[in-house]
Structure formats: structure tokens, C-alpha cells
Amino acid sequence: MDISSVFFALVAIVAVVSALLVVTCKNPINSALALVLTFFCLATFYAMLNAPFMAAIQIIVYAGAIMVLVIFTIMLLNIRVDENKKHSHQLALGSVIGIIVLMMTGLVLTRGKVSQPVGDITNELINSQGHTELIGKVMFTDFLLPFEVTSILLLVAIVGAVILAKRKLS
């Protein structure tokens, strides 16, 4: 086993544990911080796949900007955790759904086939033009509308959180 496989396994273990912490933490701030760690693990995977632009975007946009907004919204809404409440039915439902998803993932991993890359982009084209230029061309030509709709949805979510927080404070 080479060093890259060992490194991948370590990062994968950290990613899975931090993703589990996102779901299981009772404090929303701790859950958000675990999500930041998951984002850093994803950025590491992108770097290992020779996609440095995607790794940088993962850290700057998701681990940086989006998580600041999430933590700001959590603090603005002042979400309190009721430690005394029992949620056994929610825990049972979540466990059943988790087991089904885990079984389906195992089925896909054992019986699925890897598809071949589709499209005009080859390794030679990526090496000659670069990741950033190719992603920028596609994002601002083919996917401009979804890109703008996503930004509007994020803006609406922030405005909604502020309105809810002001209504709660009044």
C-alpha cells in the first residue's frame, strides 16, 4: 500500500467521522464546526484528484463564506437546544433511513460500474488551458442561469432569517 492510499484512507475516516458529528451534535454551533472540517476533507480530496481550483473554491466559498453565513444565522436566530426532550421516534426513523442508505451505497459500490468520461474535455486540454479557465467558460456560458438562481436563493434565505429573527425579538 502506497503513501497516497494511506493518506486517502485517513482523510476519508476524518471526513466520515466529521460528517457523523454534523448529524449527531446537539449544539448547532458544534455541528457547523464539524461541517467546516468535512468541507476541508472534501477540499483535500479535490487536491488529491489534481483539481486545485476546486479545492480552493471549496475552502474559500464553503468552509469560509457559507459557513460564516450559517453560523451567523444560527446565532441571529438564537436557537436553543432542549436537552430534556426525548426524540426516540426520530432516532428510530433516522436509524432506519441511515441503514437503508448505507445498504444501497454498498450495493452500488459492489455491483456498480464506473462510467467513462463524456465530453470534449481531455487531460491534454486541461493541462494546456487550466482548470480555472475551463470551469469559468462553462459556468458563465452553459450554467449562468442556475448560478444566478442559486445566488438569489441564498439571498432570500438570509433575508428570511433576518425577518424571522426580528419578528422573534419584537
Short description:
This protein is mainly alpha-helical and 170 residues long. The chain has helices at 3-24, 28-48, 52-77, 88-111, 123-129, 131-139, 144-169.
Notable traits:
single chain, 170 residues, mainly alpha, Four Helix Bundle (Hemerythrin (Met), subunit A), 2 domains, 79% helix, 0% strand
Q: How far apart, in Å, are the first and last alpha carbons?
A: 61 Å
Structural class: mainly alpha
Uncertain segments of ≥5 residues (pLDDT<50)? none
- CATH superfamily of the largest domain, called what? NADH-ubiquinone/plastoquinone oxidoreductase chain 6, subunit NuoJ
Q: What CATH architecture of the largest domain would you give?
A: Up-down Bundle
What is the CATH top level name of the largest domain? Mainly Alpha
Percentage of residues in helical conformation: over 70%
